[in-house]
Design goal:
Bound molecules: ligand RRO
Number of strands: 16
Strand order of the largest sheet: 3-4-7-8-9-10-15-16
Distance between the termini: 29 Å
CATH architecture: Alpha-Beta Barrel
Structural class: alpha/beta
CATH topology: TIM Barrel
Shape: globular
Number of helices: 12
CATH superfamily: Aldolase class I
Strand content: 15-25%
CATH class: Alpha Beta
Length: about 300
């Protein structure tokens, strides 16, 4: 059986499938459940300084067969209330990566330090939520801001820092280079794409907030393209995210250059058991293709002559 173990920015993972941030609740027990279902690691909902209720409903609608348009509004309990959830997840043996968001370098660094103190294995900086005023991609679409925020966090913590990048830019690899310059241990690509749906009968946007983020199968080729371009421009590992429903989708990202992948929308559609299925199916697929390990497949599509 092919070897699915990978090491991501110094963090050993039993397989490359991570629970993406924000898709399976924020509680420690739901994170623990995802790990028990077979995920190689779990990423928390993005946590901020203060509790946030999020936007009013509707906050999410389905899009086509395997997609969502969401504007949840970064609902989270705030860092003060989060230690117990991380403790519950860690007690189950889950490998936990803490996601944080903020408006500027100082707040990111503060939150990152407090999240690191909870014993998470790594941090993911949300510089890519596509619809939050003064947060997410509004601060993450400028390489100078990505560099400044990443540098402040890297100075504040001793654990690996992963920067989650936005696809809402003409040069995603430029953002990855900025993160790398600032000392990021890895980047993840992509968050959702800014999107809008209109309910023609109501004559207004479908989501209460208006603008939202598109996830699911429709964005997979965009995510794979971002990973492809980033892999060619940085040396740090890349995590692929966006529309992974099957092991074949995951292998596309891996062959484009991803060392690990995050699974989000598929969990909501298929249930948490999708992790067990993905792990089994990726092993079978690699065997079928005569590829000995995930490591061997990373970036493989760049090396095959046209
Ligand atoms: O909470 C959200 O509305 C949200 C976040 Br933090 C994010 O990073 N990406 C997204 O599509 N929605």
């Amino acid at each position: 059986m092919a070897d699915l173990k990978v090491t991501l920015a110094g963090i050993p993972l039993r397989n490359p499938f991570l629970l993406a941030s924000g898709i399976w609740g924020e509680s420690g027990s739901s994170l623990a459940g995802a790990y028990a279902a077979g995920a190689g690691g779990v990423i928390t909902k993005s946590i901020g300084r203060e509790p946030r209720p999020g936007y009013p409903n509707p906050t999410v609608v389905t899009f086509d067969q395997w997609g969502f348009l969401n504007a949840m509004g970064l609902p989270n309990p705030g860092i003060e209330s989060y230690p117990e959830e991380v403790a519950t997840a860690r007690k189950s043996g889950a490998l936990v990566i803490g996601s944080v968001f903020g408006p500027d370098a100082a707040e990111f660094a503060d939150l990152a330090g407090r999240m690191a103190d909870l014993g998470v294995a790594g941090l993911e900086l949300n510089l890519s939520c596509p619809h939050a005023e003064g947060l997410g991609s509004e601060v993450g679409q400028d390489p100078a801001d990505v560099e400044e925020i990443t540098r402040a966090v890297v100075r504040a913590v001793k654990i690996p820092v992963i920067v989650k990048l936005t696809p809402n830019t003409s040069d995603p690899a430029g953002l990855a280079e900025a993160a790398e310059r600032a000392g990021a241990a890895a980047v993840s690509a992509i968050n959702t794409l800014r999107a809008l749906a209109i309910d023609v009968r109501l004559r207004r946007p479908t989501l209460a907030h208006g603008l939202g983020g598109l996830s699911g199968s429709a964005i997979k080729p965009i995510g794979v393209a971002c990973v492809w371009q980033i892999f060619e421009r940085v040396k740090i590992p890349v995590i692929g995210v966006g529309g992974i429903m099957t092991a074949e989708d995951a292998l596309e990202y891996i062959m484009a250059g991803a060392r690990a992948v995050e699974v989000g929308t598929a969990v909501a559609f298929k249930g948490i058991r999708v992790f067990g299925d993905l792990v089994r199916d990726l092993g079978r697929l690699l065997d079928e293709l005569g590829i000995a390990s995930v490591n061997d497949a990373v970036g493989m599509a760049h090396r095959v002559p046209a």
